[in-house]
Design a protein that fits this description.
The chain is mainly α. Helix content is about 75%, strand content about 0%. It is globular and about 65 Å long.
Length: about 500
């Protein structure tokens, strides 16, 4: 997140005294907010089929319920972090958690799919205001000798969110509380958000950066326009029979991104505060890492949406059964992530990340083989092996990737670089969700009879798995451009040591 950017953009205010117990209340509050954000998306993923059936959402609306959140979140990350630097991290955290709570209420009471999509976009934008402040507040609140313990707690929260999100979403959907169907998955945020808002205003200490960078709203606008030109035709193309304007819009996206590069060059020369620090791309390992993060996000965006649709719509499983099926994957991710950072990467370096990519590809191919062999009769325990293999592979990648990418980045640009890493992963996720209409819904026939729906979704899932395996192969090749061993003590290397940020969002995609 750009939370890392904010911690590195300037020296925070003096942290509270070591005996001040208020800082632990502040920690509990910001960690709860981070947990709420993590759980929210996993809850939505597991409830997508129920939303589709109950709300009558179209294929493109289903994609935008997830992709709209990711796009708004990605577009607002760097801006949210810099707003915290300028106006105060506590203030922006409270604005973010208040807006996130309001958007959750709007999602829960959405009268139609269009309102739900709009509310999810607002929710993603508010998360972009809230989440970047979390680690910044920790950095400003705790002295250096206590941060290791705090980041350990943060890792535990990440693991808990990865495991509990799908289960909580499955239970809330299955229970159908008060006849509200899927709506409690959003409404559960209301008491948590209100408590965080009240307690945060009392216990969190305000902090700002003494010299904050200026906002680059034009850069943000160009990024959003470019992504919309690419994503909107992708998500609507299948439904609209691929009209000409869609291809024209997609062809215009590279032109907008070219304009973004030209503008960022001029802005960097003029006031030194561009949205994207283009000089970073001269660092081979960083450029390759950005490519890895983007492609990785694409693969995850495709897999987790079609996986949910496969289990619930294709196989006809209940949300609870689907949620329980994913538990081995979540546990494997959390376990492998801890081992990779603490034991494997220091000994084997880049090979650990490449092994992760190969393991993910192997797990996908195993899943494809089992899906073809067992068809509609496949069981949860038969899925366990490929899911564990995939989970171990993902854990080997997500935890050490940030440090590998940042290891050769000059220290003064470490904050901007870490913010950009997380931004492009979210953008890749949004692009992957957009591609679902091509690699999944694009192979499902129109006007299916009820008896044909299940087998059609199973066949489409197998088709999508082939694409995901190919994506993992591309990631493996891109990783050869990463440094063999992340540098820990060279210029800029130290910056990566405090950056456990990729782990914060990766489980969101589970």
């Amino acid at each position: 997140m750009t939370s890392t950017e904010t911690t590195l953009s300037g020296t925070p205010d003096e942290p509270p005294a070591a005996g001040d117990r208020r800082r632990w209340f502040a920690l509990a509050i910001v960690m709860t907010a981070a947990f709420m954000d993590l759980v929210d998306v996993t809850i939505v993923n597991i409830a997508i089929p129920s939303i589709r059936q109950d709300a009558g959402a179209s294929v493109s609306q289903i994609q935008w319920i997830t992709a709209g959140y990711a796009l708004a979140f990605a577009a607002g990350l760097i801006t949210g972090g810099r707003l915290g630097d300028i106006h105060g991290r506590k203030r922006l955290f409270l604005v973010g958690i208040g807006g996130f709570t309001l958007a959750s209420a709007l999602c829960g009471f959405a009268a139609n799919p269009e309102m739900l999509v709009a509310s999810r976009i607002l929710q993603g934008g508010m998360a972009a205001m809230m989440v970047p402040q979390v680690l910044s507040i920790v950095h400003a609140t705790f002295p250096a000798h206590e941060r290791g313990k705090v980041f350990g707690l943060f890792g535990a929260i990440v693991g808990l969110g990865a495991v509990s999100g799908p289960l909580l979403g499955a239970l809330l959907t299955e229970w159908n509380l008060f006849g509200l169907e899927w709506r409690p998955i959003f409404l559960i945020n209301l008491p948590v958000g209100i408590a965080g808002l009240v307690l945060g205003s009392r216990f969190i200490t305000e902090s700002k950066a003494p010299r904050a960078l200026k906002l680059d709203l034009v850069g943000v606008a160009l990024v959003v326009v470019g992504l919309l030109l690419l994503l909107y035709p992708l998500t609507r193309g299948e439904e609209l029979d691929w009209p000409l304007w869609g291809f024209v819009a997609m062809a215009g996206a590279p032109l907008v991104f070219a304009a973004l590069v030209a503008y960022e060059k001029r802005k960097g020369a003029r006031d030194g505060s561009p949205l994207v620090e283009l000089s970073l791309f001269k660092v081979k390992s960083f450029a390759a890492g950005i490519a890895v993060q983007t492609v990785f996000g694409v693969g995850l965006g495709i897999f987790f949406l079609v996986w949910t649709l496969y289990m619930q719509t294709g196989l006809g499983w209940s949300p609870l059964r689907a949620g329980l099926t994913g538990v081995p994957f979540s546990i494997a991710v959390s376990t492998a992530a801890g081992l990779s950072v603490q034991q494997l990467v220091p000994r084997f370096g880049r090979k650990v990340l490449q092994a992760g990519a190969l393991l993910m590809a192997l797990g996908v191919l195993l899943y494809l083989w089992e899906a073809e062999r067992y068809g509609m009769g496949i069981s949860s325990w038969q899925m366990a092996l490929p899911l564990v293999v995939m989970g171990v592979g993902m854990g080997l990648i997500v935890a050490p990737l940030t440090d590998a990418v940042l290891s050769e980045v000059p220290r003064e640009h470490a904050g901007s670089a870490s913010g950009l890493i997380n931004t492009v992963q979210q953008m890749g996720n949004a692009l992957g969700l957009g591609l679902v209409s091509v690699v999944f819904f694009g192979v499902i026939g129109d006007d299916l009879r009820p008896a044909q729906v299940g087998p059609a979704f199973v066949d489409a899932f197998q088709h999508a798995l082939g694409w995901v395996a190919a994506v993992m192969g591309v990631i493996f090749l891109l990783m050869f451009a990463l440094p063999k061993r992340p540098a820990q003590h060279v210029e800029g290397g130290e910056a990566g040591a405090e950056l456990p940020v990729v782990e914060e969002k990766a489980p969101e995609l589970v």
